[in-house]
Amino acid sequence: MPFTYTRTVRFQDTDAAGVVYFANVLAMCHEAYEASLAASGVNLRAFFGDREVAFPIIHASVDFYRPLFAGDVLTIQLTPAQVAGDEFEIAYQVFSGEVAGRSWAKALTKHVCIDAVSRTKKQLSEDLMQWMRQFES
Q1: Torsions phi, psi of 112, nearest 5?
Q2: CB-based contacts of 49, cutoff 8 Å, min separation 6
Q3: C-alpha to C-alpha distance for 66 and 64, rounded to whole angstroms
Q4: DSSP labels for 22-51?
Q5: Which domains does the chain have, with CATH numbers?
Q6: Which residues are catalytic?
Q7: In what order do the strands lie in the sheet with 105-112?
Q8: How far is CA 109 from the centre of its chain?
Q9: Which of 57, 81, 68, 79 is nearest to 21 (CA)?
Q10: What are phi and psi of 40, to 5 degrees?
Q11: Geometric angle at alpha carbon 80, from 40 and 29, rounded to 5°
């Protein structure tokens, strides 16, 4: 079952045209990612502060179907999936209002697990695998 995160669009998220600036949708999705980790019991300080392991994003994309404005209440659903032994991706669906309707945007981030010192790829940890299993489709 996907993880669900709710957030209100703030004025600071918008551009000069009054709609959400494209890069800010990715920032909102990353907020949902962090919230899903916390909800599954991951210590965020330890996860993001680990000096031995890192999970950089190696690909990101966003598709927009309708504009998002300041004051819109968004529901972001995320579904993680393992891609390889050292990679995972997160699919996001962004809704405004009822989730039952059509999504207003979708995004995808692809991450790789690396040794933070040597910058070489590492296998995903069991903790991360458990997080993925909890929210996979």
Answers
A1: -125, 145
A2: none
A3: 6
A4: HHHHHHHHHHHHHHHHHHTT--HHHHHH-S
A5: 3-135 (3.10.129.10)
A6: 15
A7: 3-8, 73-84, 87-96, 105-112, 57-64
A8: 7
A9: 68
A10: -90, 5
A11: 85
* Global confidence as pTM: 0.93
Shortest CA distance to 114 belongs to which of 56, 48, 58?
56
- What would the DSSP string read from start to end of the chain? --EEEEEEPPGGGB-TTSBB-HHHHHHHHHHHHHHHHHHTT--HHHHHH-SSEE--EEEEEEEESS--BTTPEEEEEEEEEEEETTEEEEEEEEEES-TTS--SEEEEEEEE-EETTT--B-PPPHHHHHHHHHH--
Q: From CA 62, how far away is CA 18, in angstroms rounded?
A: 18
How many residues are there in the chain?
137
Interatomic CA distance for residues 85 and 112, integer angstroms = 9
What gap in Å lies between CA 124 and CA 49, rounded to an integer?
17
Residue with tokens 């949708």: 25
Chunked into runs of 10 residues, the chain (137 residues) has average pLDDT values of: 96 96 97 97 90 94 95 96 97 84 93 95 93 91
